[in-house]
Design goal:
heterodimer, A: alpha+beta, seven-stranded antiparallel β-sheet, six-stranded mixed β-sheet, 18% helix, B: alpha/beta, four-stranded antiparallel β-sheet, 8 helices, 10 strands, 31% helix, globular
Chain lengths: 441, 301
């Protein structure tokens, strides 16, 4: 790498961790999905560049390509932001339009970053990136402190039920590594997020440019006793992010081999959305209400004793029950709500706004119905969290609480209890576009 | 690992199986685009897992440029026979003979770009409404913004600025007549994930992925195969080298790397130490900064 990159290549900042190639340890790594949010110029690309660079995930040819495009644009430094500009329009306009996914690994974990743009259609993109994330990194410029965008990002992380939020107070080098500045920003954010539902919140003072507290502990901030960002990403407890209490198995596909060997085989394929299923369990099938027992939980590699989220398996039952896609296998003593009228927090994602009393397709797990938006209760000002009750026009990037009425009952949980069974999307019946995402309240 | 948590490869496997089943459930005539390369082999393997004990409920489709490595074709035929799948071959030679495309001329002539026309014709003739492929988001930067379910208009085109948002694991495969989808079950896998999975699942791959002796010549720093199809300049002298291929595409645009990695374990060590991406040996990506984006917009894989 050349010396004039936007990242300072202080050798002490470069990770010397061995690459995760040992087969046995590679097979024992966990997956952490996180999203990054920040305003323009707060160093998000630099931070991502550093994580990728320090974990040796930037390749020479990728580096040469961005080096060349930086040069062509007359930029003084190699601009690592170009690494995340995937589309021609983005490079031409110097902006990021869409969510981009990045990958890196350390010997402990493999990471998927949903990198969301800071300004263009921020809500739509951040909601998309947040929907699959275990963790959100929210960047805050130490010189500016908590700004409107910080509130917005915190709110979306909470709304989308991201279990862990890490506030990286960046550019500490530009505020003389001041503990006081850090503590002030921290307490401002804490005061605001007391109104939110995120349970696990962390604060780390960093300099993405110089690498302070990103991978290596900063010598410039001896007052900071917490961990580095990388340590947190590698060690934060994520195993309980899935719901293992409430058994939910949305049937995705029915497997009927109709071969000689498996003549009478009828298996229900799907991905477990919650709880732990075991062979021998008494189960109930929705919507029919039929009761049966799990005969086996099958996979290509043989039957398994128990299965939990997010495993993809095939369940067979003791009795012949008529089950098809969209049905749900649950436990009799722990059932989801069966609802055709319910409220959701809706994020609108289409240029064409919500049509009052308009009809849409609705999707929830493997189920599909049609629905009507019967009432817009209020819109949320995502910067202040205030409810807006006098303007009920819903357009792109708006977040609102609405009531839905569906053509058939859905099997749902509150989103805060289960992100799989509590989420819905709305699809425009004319254009077939996904126009909104919703969290059941 | 804790109880009730999955390793990252198991989670990626589960995600891919979920996507494959979603395709079988949402579409009427899906197909799996099979190049004989490692990524499409992994997707085919995952498809066996997804529908077991039933057979894979869709055909494998190979777009044959006529310039494939013979090892790839041999492997393809044996593989298809072994898993009992149906194979449909779309021929670029036929598209040329029918005058639908014109062969490129000159030293760097390749049928790689011509494949798009044959692919779209094959999709139309067979009325496929979803074509699954082994593309990964870590391969190339235009692909980093690709969805699992990627909508294509009636001309097979991708509109990257107007993609449907994709949330949680709810996939929207709704479309109008004549439109279709491309679906990428291993979107979230990296090159390393694919190799480690091949090793742990003991998946067979074409022999040319492992180090072997081959007659090659050097062009722009890449070792190209010596054969009747690629024209050579006078100073491009054939030489015998121990090489392997990191990706398998059309012979005219896929280069080899010098390597002694003759086992999967050694390949993995090499991939880990590699300082260039696997597509660094692909001349088709080097044509311009947006080469992949342009091909994808037109309907390329």
């Amino acid at each position: 790498m050349s010396n004039n990159s936007k990242i300072n290549h202080n050798p002490s900042n470069i990770s010397h961790q061995p690459s995760p190639v040992n087969h046995d340890s590679y097979l024992n790594m966990e997956l952490l999905r996180f999203t990054t949010a920040g305003s323009v110029d707060d160093g998000k690309s630099t931070l991502i560049g550093r994580l990728l660079y320090d974990s040796k995930s930037i390749f020479e040819d990728q580096y040469e390509a961005i080096e060349e495009s930086s040069k062509r644009k007359g930029e003084e430094h190699v601009n690592l932001a170009h690494l995340t500009d995937g589309l021609r329009a983005e490079r031409e306009q110097g902006i990021t339009i869409d969510v981009a996914y990045r990958y890196f690994a350390t010997p402990k974990r493999k990471f998927i970053i949903a990198d969301t743009p800071g300004h263009i259609q921020y809500t739509r993109n951040m909601v998309t990136g947040a929907s699959t994330a275990n963790l959100a990194i929210v960047l805050v410029d130490a010189r500016k402190g908590m700004v409107e965008q910080t509130s917005r990002h915190s709110f979306i992380a909470s709304l989308l039920g991201i279990p862990h939020v890490v506030y990286c107070i960046n550019k500490m080098d530009l505020v003389d590594y001041s503990e006081e500045t850090f503590n002030k920003i921290k307490s401002d954010i804490q005061n605001f997020s007391a109104k939110l539902e995120t349970k696990d919140i962390h604060f780390i003072p960093i300099s993405a440019l110089n690498g302070d507290n990103v991978v290596h502990k900063s010598e410039n901030m001896p007052w900071y006793e917490g961990t580095t960002l990388m340590y947190l990403l590698e060690n934060i407890h994520i195993a309980s992010d899935h719901n293992h209490r409430d058994c939910r198995f949305p049937v995705q596909y029915v497997i009927r081999p109709q071969s000689k060997e498996f003549h009478d085989y009828r298996g229900y394929a799907g991905r477990i959305a919650g709880g732990i299923f075991k062979a021998g369990d008494e189960i109930k099938v929705l919507p029919s209400g039929k009761i049966s027992k799990i005969k086996s939980i099958d996979t290509y590699d043989g039957p398994v004793e128990e299965a939990f989220a997010p495993m993809s398996v095939t369940i067979t039952l003791e009795d012949e029950v008529d089950i098809s896609r969209g049905d749900m296998i649950v436990r009799e003593n722990n059932q989801p709500e069966v609802l055709a009228d319910f409220d959701v927090m809706l994020c609108w994602m289409n240029d064409k706004g919500l049509v009052p009393r308009g009809k849409y397709y609705i999707r929830n797990t493997s189920n599909e119905a049609r629905c009507m938006v019967t009432e817009v209760k209020y819109k949320v000002d995502i910067n202040t969290l205030h409810r807006i009750e006098d303007d009920k026009n819903i357009s792109m990037n708006d977040i609102a609480r609405v009531s839905l009425k569906t053509t058939k009952p859905l099997f749902v949980d509150r989103y805060s209890r289960n992100r799989n069974t509590g989420s819905i999307i709305l699809v425009d019946e004319a254009t077939n576009e996904t126009v909104a995402a919703g969290m059941i309240v | 690992m804790q109880k009730y948590s999955l390793t990252h490869l198991k989670e990626l496997e589960s995600e891919a199986i979920y996507v494959l089943r979603e395709v079988a459930a949402q579409f009427e005539r899906p197909a799996l685009l099979f190049s004989g390369g490692k990524d499409s082999i992994v997707v085919a393997h995952l498809a066996r897992k997804a529908f077991y004990p039933a057979a894979i409920p869709f055909p494998l489709v190979h777009i044959d440029t006529g310039h494939n490595f013979p090892e790839t074709i041999t492997f393809r035929d044996e593989f298809v026979k072994k898993i009992g799948a149906q194979l449909i071959v779309g021929s670029v030679q036929q598209s040329i003979d029918e005058g639908k495309v014109v062969e490129e001329q000159g030293l760097n002539a390749s049928r790689n770009k011509l494949q798009t026309v044959t692919l779209l014709d094959t999709i139309e003739q067979n009325k496929f409404d979803a074509c699954m492929g082994g593309a990964r988001r870590d391969e190339e930067k235009a692909r980093a913004k690709e969805r699992f379910f990627s909508h294509r208009d009636a001309f097979g085109q991708w509109d990257p600025k107007n993609q449907r948002p994709e949330l949680w694991n709810i996939f929207n495969g709704k479309k109008h007549m004549g439109e279709h989808f491309r679906v990428f079950p291993i979107s979230n896998w990296t090159e390393m994930d694919v190799w480690q999975y091949i090793l742990s699942e003991n998946i067979e791959i074409p022999s040319i992925y492992l180090a072997h002796e081959r007659n090659v010549f050097n062009r722009d720093g890449v070792w190209m195969d010596v054969n009747d199809i690629i024209l050579r300049k006078d100073n491009e002298t054939p030489i015998k080298k121990t090489v392997r291929f990191r990706t398998i595409g059309d012979m005219t645009c896929t280069g080899a790397v010098e390597s002694t990695a003759d086992t999967l374990e050694k390949v993995i060590q090499e991939v880990a130490a590699a300082r260039t991406t696997e597509r660094g040996t692909r001349a088709d990506d080097k044509r311009s900064e947006a080469a992949m984006e342009d091909r994808k917009k037109e309907g390329y894989f």
